[in-house]
Amino acid sequence: MKSRTRHVSAVIAMASALLCGLPASAAFATPSPMPQPTKDPQDTFVWSENPARTERGLSGNKTPKETSEQNCDAVKARTDIAAGEMALCVLKGRHSLTDGDPTIQAQLPRPDEIPDWCANADWDYNRVLSCRNGIETFALIQDGKIIGTADVETWDLVRTNHNNNKFSWDQWANVASTAGQFRDLWAGLTYQGVGMCTGQCALETVNVGPRLVPSSTWLRTYHIWHSTISTIGGRNKPSLDVEMTWILPGTIPMNTTYNRSLDRDIRCDYRSPGTNAYYGCIFPEFRPTLRVPRSILPEYADHIADAQATNWPVGMPGGLPLTRLTNQDDIDENRTMSCANQPSPRPSGQQCDEYPFASTYQGSYTSGFDASSRLINEQQNHDGGQQLQEFYQLYRILDKEAFHVQVVTI
Fold it and tell me: What is the pTM of this model?
């Protein structure tokens, strides 16, 4: 049993290291926020496929703000630009690398901080990260005609943290391709991003430019904010925007200043019931999945799988979720009612395990339905409970928040 305990503890420690990256005290000691997890299919706490990805516009998603005209038609028709003068305009706002022009390809490897699963012109996200990738196409206008274009590849990465009150927005840019007279002028292109946070939040660190946009490496800018919520049990949803400005010397900037917004809600909370860390900020729309390893906890995993396959399919990915319960009295009642049909005292080395978990609203007492119960190995029951509690903390799952459970073989 001790070997199995060390194995489970090692898995939990590995997952914690992936999620935390650095000690909380050092998380934001460097100019960039701490690294966050990649989508590792062997991780017990692996990110689930997010059901909300096909439900954009629901669950409080916001409409992105695009204040730029995002085309050059009006610029070409303007009569207040003198003959021979050049104007810079956005020919096409953010779009995917192959949208409309399959010849456009990424010129550089993605920044190291960008997870492998991020490759979308729309915001993709998990519990602590949201990111996107795309192309901004610029045009030079002279005497009513386009005389050159440039494609600038951009990355955005918004990071939150499950155990402190800080969140950040990093941006990267590089000139991926040029055509016409832009080939001779692109080296002067500069970018500046000015971030804005609305709600109970304050700016902490910033590096916004203006700075030259290179082609052989990435230009990086960033903002770091922190939540200012101070009411015990309080929650808030800060809203993030970045005002983007592109300048090319010798040209008249026309529609090259515009806003981009994060269209995913961030939720920050302070000293909420059931949490170990005072502060935490996450993307609440992402519904995580607890993956229970059958090779490490066979009896515990078998009980969950059997319950889900018979009378309790709740909790399975793609189906109805479980919802966390933090009231300890109700948790105790759930456990007592679920295990009332098991022998007492328990046989040596065994404990009563219940599914749905006692720490969910689907438990016997809080749901009014009989949960599945089974006597299983005492150590496995303890280790499974420890895994569940670590899962709640790592994903900052608060009272009445949903999650899934899946038995896996690793």
Answer: 0.81
